Amino acid sequence: MKALIAVLAGDGIGPEVTAEAVRALDRIAQRFNHEFEFKEGLLGGAAIDATGLPLPPATLELAQRADATLLGAVGGPKWSDPGAQVRPEQGLLQLRKALGLFANLRPVVPHARLSDVSPIKEHLLRGVDIMVVRELTGGIYFGAKTRSATEAVDECRYSLAEIERVVRVAATLARGRRRKLTSVDKANVLETSRLWRATVDLLLPAEFPDVAYEHMLVDSAAMHLLQRPRDFDVIVTENMFGDILTDEASMLVGSMGLLPSASLGADARGGLFEPIHGSAPDIAGRGVANPYAAILSAAMLLRHSLALTPEAEALERAVYRAIESGVLPADLIPRGVATPGAATPGAAAPEAPTPRPAATTRAAADAVLAGL
Ligand code: NAD
User: What is the pLDDT of residues 28-68, one digit of tens each?
Assistant: First the structure.
């Protein structure tokens, strides 16, 4: 297959981890005989510095033309003045909107080797495999906003069509998994949630009779995610609830450095794939960022936009093998067990049987490539 992949590395650790994801895709192309062309574009702070705009027209044109876009992260202290007219995050929001990416997919699969990195008890994590589908372009984040000296209003609005299209994405994913869908809302209080629930009740039996579904209130879902995470298969929810629940769910895995995401529109082609973490200015430039989330995002790109499932699985297996063999960047090592790049014999916490140095970004990616 020939594919054009837009690479928007962004700021901070974005370029460091994206470079490793591109190397992994290059290796996949060689091994499976594909031709991937990578074209770089400016986004976020780097784009503001170069052009004055967080999403320059050339970057948008590239992403619109590409078969898929691989993104690093945007933002950082240099551009974080709250009074600034132009901000890196605007570039990301504009890009998602312009590409019509309404469904955000975040797989949450804790790894047995890393159970001590998660704050959740190990026995609760065994067998957990959740796909959260968050609506990305509607709801209260995009509603009209007004503010006076004494009052502020954020409007929350959803149309039937907006709900249907994201529920269809989630139900289709459930069909390829354990055929269970949990629709999360706040239908006891919110009118938008009552429309959401009614839409699910009509759509699922009519179009997905083979998928079992349930409704769950968002407060209850927040609790059950920690109490019995194994019971979830696919979760679908509106924008703000999804924003909050996905950060909560990331704690099941233990580190943001392991969590990929995909943002999809009406066509599978042209999706946007990025780690869920930000630009991590505190560690940028030191070569210690965890590249696994970026590489797993590249695997999602192969699966969802290029329909290359065996290639995606090969890349995911290579990441899991690297983790199993103990190649762990600093964020995957429990505190007190090792320090980045320098394990001091005898300095480990008493509960650590085999202290070892944290892997650098390059060493972790090399371990993945070695498994391909
Ligand atoms: P962050 O995700 O950048 O970092 C939070 C913590 O996690 C930091 O201690 C960081 O060192 C660590 N971390 C994150 N990714 C890591 C990785 N791959 N390997 C090892 N450690 C990692 O969030 P933040 O500090 O709140 O935000 C920093 C900047 O990133 C801000 O400007 C924010 O606006 C931006 N941001 C961007 C995105 C995006 O581009 N999608 C998302 C979130 C935050």
Answer: 999 999 999 999 999 999 999 999 999 999 999 999 999 99
**Residue 354 pLDDT:** 54
Condensed to tens digits (0 to 9), the pLDDT of residues 252-270 reads: 998 889 999 999 999 989 9
The CA 42 to ligand 1 mean position distance, Å, reads 19
Residue 141 a catalytic site member: yes
Over the stretch 307-347, which tens digit does the pLDDT of each residue have? 999 999 999 999 999 999 999 999 999 766 544 444 445 55
DSSP SS3 for 254: coil
Q: E strands along the chain, which residues?
A: 2-10, 35-40, 68-73, 103-108, 130-135, 145-147, 152-154, 180-185, 212-217, 234-237, 260-264, 271-275
Neighbours of 348 (CB within 10 A): 18
Asked if the structure places residue 259 within a domain, the reply is no
Residue 304 burial (CB count, 10 A): 22
Query: Are the C-beta atoms of residues 269 and 68 closer than 8 Å to each other?
Result: yes
Torsion of the alpha carbons at 8, 12, 16 and 21, rounded to the nearest 10: -40
243 in catalytic set: yes
Domain span at 153: 119-253
* % the chain with pLDDT above 90: 88
Reported as half-sphere exposure (CB side, CA atoms, 13 A), residue 150 has a value of 0
Beta strands per DSSP E along 286-357: none
Nearest-CA residue for atom 37 of ligand 1:
278
User: What distance in Å separates the CA atoms of residue 272 and residue 99, rounded to the nearest whole number?
Assistant: 9
CATH number, residue 361: 3.40.718.10
Q: What is the pTM of this model?
A: 0.92
**Token pair of 155 as six digits:** 């409007």
Q: Candidates 251, 279, 283, 361: which one to mutate for ligand 1, based on the most atoms within 8 Å of Cβ? A: 279
Residue at 102 is within a domain: yes
For residue 289, the ligand 1 atom closest to its alpha carbon is 19
Would residue 270 count as lying in a domain? no
Residue 261 maps to a domain: no
